Amino acid sequence: DHLVNQIAAGEVVERPAAVIKELIENSLDAGCGQIEIDIEQGGVKRLRVRDDGCGIPREQLELALSRHATSKVSELADLEAVATLGFRGEALPSIASVSRLTLTSRAEEDAESAWEVSVGADGRLVSPRPAAHPRGTSVDVRDLFFNTPARRKFLRTEKTEFDHIEQVVRRVALARPEIGIQLRHNGKGILSLGASGGDESRVLERLDRLLGKGFGEQSLAVDESAVDLRLYGWVMRPAFSRSQPDQQFFYVNGRMVRDKLVTHAVRQAFSDVLHQARHPAYVLFLQTPSRLVDVNVHPAKHEVRFRESRQVHDFIYRSLHRRLSQGTL
Ligand code: ADP
Ligand code: MG
């Protein structure tokens, strides 16, 4: 089973940033309000994610580390909804099989203390012991790939690995302004984002922090709907666009995607209205019923497959075309 987990880890856990993505998604699924992320040496030495979510009760701690144990699929119908975020019960055991992992958690019902389990080098679970932790969960991942040297060899410099981690955190931070997020690298604060509390001006402030000063103020708000489709978010007025290739954020049902069809529709709208082909800057969210989209083409990639791709393309194009034409650009 340890070996099966390691093989799965090969697909799931390409690099430290992939670990962070899975751990953050678990924290979000747990209904947290705050996430603290501590990274050492680009994540290779240590990654720690701490949340204030629902926690894992003592008797489910070991289960959380076993393969295909997910608490999130109660019926088959759920499977589609769950498929939009992460996959099913593979992340923690996969990560644990290629690192030294400790899981500490306290659920509402753990009255006296928090509990902690860890995985030994042989893949065996050390049974739960009492620990100190407020309500919520910490996952501590040390020495990533220590037992898979081939994979370790593919890692880049500490800086590159950390850049990937920061990118993952930024993507989540843009999509979930209601969550407070702290990111530290080697003890140094990198991002400190307060929860928006539903306050629009604090949402715009976060956009500024993540995309550069002025984005919140200079951008144009978008919110367009059609049957089964809604597109909302912000596009940067081109006059202020810095034409950077890393200012394009598109989410489908909350999950960041990089998709040819989507990118084409957005670029086409920009170039038809503004007659220019610079990189448009945008943060856009597309909502559509999960039966009309498959975002799980590959868990670690960012593609989507729409059932009615032509319709989606045209909706995005028309929505942005209309908004850009109206906007006082
Ligand atoms: P999945 O997220 O697909 O269910 P994971 O391997 O990522 O699979 O997690 C396994 C289980 O561990 C989850 O279903 C959940 O019950 C529990 N879990 C993991 N992380 C957290 C967390 N941060 N807070 C609460 N529960 C968690
Ligand atoms: Mg998960």
Automatic annotation (TrEMBL):
GO MF term (any one): endonuclease activity
Keywords: DNA damage, DNA repair, Endonuclease, Hydrolase, Nuclease
Domain of life assignment: Bacteria
Keyword Hydrolase: yes
Stretches assigned to the DNA mismatch repair protein S5 domain: 207-325
UniProt similarity note: Belongs to the DNA mismatch repair MutL/HexB family.
Purpose: This protein is involved in the repair of mismatches in DNA. It is required for dam-dependent methyl-directed DNA mismatch repair. May act as a 'molecular matchmaker', a protein that promotes the formation of a stable complex between two or more DNA-binding proteins in an ATP-dependent manner without itself being part of a final effector complex.
Protein name: DNA mismatch repair protein MutL
Annotated source species: Thiorhodococcus fuscus
